[in-house]
Structures are given as C-alpha cells and as structure tokens.
Specification:
Elements: H1 2-33, H2 43-46, H3 59-64, H4 71-90, E1 94-98, H5 103-110, E2 120-124, H6 132-149
Parallel strand pairs: 1-2
C-alpha cells in the first residue's frame, strides 16, 4: 500500500512539472508567434518572390529576416521589429528576449508570476549559441522595448 501511495505521489509530481513546462512553452510560443493583424505587407520586401505576400506580423518570422545579408532586408526587419515592440507596448506587455546557458529555465522562473512588480515576460531564444542574426534581432527588439518602457523625464 505504501509503495502504491509513493508511486501515485511521484506521478502527481511528474505530471505537475510537465504541466508547468508546457505552460511556460505555451507562454513563449504565444508571444513569439503572436501575429499583429494591423501590420501590413512590407512593400519593399513584397517586390521579391522570396518575400511575396509575407506579412512578417510576429517576432518569430521577422527575426529570421536578420539572416539575410541584403541591407534593404535588414533595414525593413529593424523597422518591423520596432513596430512589433510598439504594439506589445500598447498592450502593456514588456517582452524581454534572452538566450544563453539556462536561459529557458531562468525565463521559466521569471515567468511564474506574470503579475509581479517588474511585469516583464521573458522569452528564451536558445540555450547556448544562437546565430549572430538572431542575436542582432534580440538586441534591436530589447533596446526598443527598454526605450518604450523607460519613463520619460
């Protein structure tokens, strides 16, 4: 009987941990893929078959634009990330992109209480190494969020 109780208790703990991880992944996925319907197709990019009819209305897709070497693509990517940051700001959602060792677990811990005093939502882009293009996109977005949420003097 004692063994059965311990087994049931272990399953309950495991189930709870899995639910918590799923919830954190869900939080991260929501904000990475949240499409802002008001963002229109970027005319400069729509001229090229690769980008034709792509709206780049969320963080995830827009960040991939930083992988292109063409300056006009990168310029449009910066503008779009800043637009997305502004839309999150208008929703009063301070999104912070992170990466590095244990960044997922740190984000998980920080996101346990989304109503805490700092009000930030942390999203991990990768554990250790991410491409330079993603790092650049992370910096552009985080800088814009910081600028928007810093009280004006």
């Amino acid at each position: 009987m004692k063994k059965i109780f311990l087994l049931l208790l272990s399953l309950q703990v495991f189930s709870q941990e899995k639910e918590n991880n799923d919830e954190i992944l869900f939080i991260q996925d929501i904000y990475l893929s949240q499409c802002f319907e008001e963002l229109q197709i970027i005319d400069e990019l729509n001229k090229y078959p690769t980008f034709e009819n792509q709206r780049f209305c969320n963080l995830e897709h827009t960040m991939y634009l930083f992988a292109y070497k063409e300056e006009f693509v990168r310029k449009e990517a910066v503008k779009r990330l800043k637009e997305i940051a502004k839309l999150f700001y208008l929703e009063n959602k301070y999104i912070v992109l992170t990466h590095g060792m244990d960044s997922f677990y740190i984000s998980e811990k920080e996101n346990l209480n989304l109503k805490d005093d700092n009000g930030k939502i942390y999203i991990s882009l990768g554990e250790c190494v991410i491409p330079n293009s993603m790092n650049e996109a992370e910096n552009v977005f985080n800088d814009e969020m910081k600028k928007l949420f810093t009280p004006k003097k």
